[in-house]
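Let's sit down with a protein and look at its sequence and fold side by side. Which protein we use is up to you, so please pick one and set it down. Label the sequence line and the structure token line clearly, so we can match residues to local backbone shapes. Go ahead whenever you are ready, and we will take it from there:

***
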Amino acid sequence: MRKIISVAGIALALAACEKEAGHELDLNSFGNATNNNQLVMRGELDYAISLGNRFASEVPTTITFAFDSAVLDSAARATLDRQANWIRQFPEVRFKVFGHTDKVGSSAYNRQLGQRRANAVVNYFAQRGISRGRLEALVSFGETRPVIDTPARERQNRRTVTEVSGFVKRHPTVLDGKYAQIIYREYVQSAVPTTNTTVTNGINE
């Protein structure tokens, strides 16, 4: 009996590991044990979290969509342009895009819709010169993680979120373990023009 229980326990553990493998980096609860353990062993986890926090503090990470749509409107494109400008400054870093929906419609349909929204963001980034190889497997949470828990139409729930997921494994900086240099690299917003000023009698004009 004990042997049977032991075999069953091993089977359950293996199934759990299989489910976790390849899942997204959870920057909030660190709930993805397999992925996180690998990051810890490679010395990446703390640096990935720090860079993810920096990304979230410097650019908007979320865009929203019209009802039953995966079309990027002008506001979404403007936000994605800011994300893309930031992402281009860090060629050693990988990202994931998480797709979400509101609760109107079936779960299966909403998961597909969340995927279409994530795909739209990745396609937009690719058009802006960001390698698809730096954008990890897209994830759709569908209707399962609402910002506002309501069965009604809610734009804040119809969204994608872009997050740091790790580092490009074969990049020279990463191979040298220079994670701190990546995190603290100065970021220059190239889209913001430099203001030309002249000084007259100590007064800027």
